[in-house]
Amino acid sequence: MNSKITQIISQLPSLNFEKSKQFYQEVLGCRLVEEYEDLLIFLWDDNEIHLWKCGEKIVPENSSCYIRVHDIEAVFERYKKVLGDKIALKDQPWGMREFYIIDDSGNLFKFGQPIQ
């Protein structure tokens, strides 16, 4: 028997599927692969991310996802082209170089790489 976890998929709340579809595709560069009445499934590079329909603003405002990357500067530049000065790359005291993106519903994405 193999008990190894093969994948972990973030499932985040969305307040408005139409706005989320636009944000995830146009800003984050995700590809919508499946759409249901209460669930959107995107591919983000080679990773799945799910959005579920939510009616309470407090839920996404308290939801987040941490994304470790290999080349934080390249990823930052990719999103800076779209978001401009809304994002900033910063070295954190806990040894990570990070930047943050907040989606249309208020979910926080933290991108990070260990400082070498």
TrEMBL record:
<dbReference type="GO" id="GO:0046677">
    <property type="term" value="P:response to antibiotic"/>
</dbReference>
<dbReference type="InterPro" id="IPR029068">
    <property type="entry name" value="Glyas_Bleomycin-R_OHBP_Dase"/>
</dbReference>
<keyword id="KW-0046">Antibiotic resistance</keyword>
<dbReference type="InterPro" id="IPR000335">
    <property type="entry name" value="Bleomycin-R"/>
</dbReference>
<feature type="domain" description="VOC">
    <location>
        <begin position="4"/>
        <end position="114"/>
    </location>
</feature>
<comment type="similarity">
    <text>Belongs to the bleomycin resistance protein family.</text>
</comment>
<protein>
    <recommendedName>
        <fullName>Bleomycin resistance protein</fullName>
    </recommendedName>
</protein>
<dbReference type="Pfam" id="PF00903">
    <property type="entry name" value="Glyoxalase"/>
</dbReference>
<dbReference type="InterPro" id="IPR004360">
    <property type="entry name" value="Glyas_Fos-R_dOase_dom"/>
</dbReference>
<dbReference type="InterPro" id="IPR037523">
    <property type="entry name" value="VOC_core"/>
</dbReference>
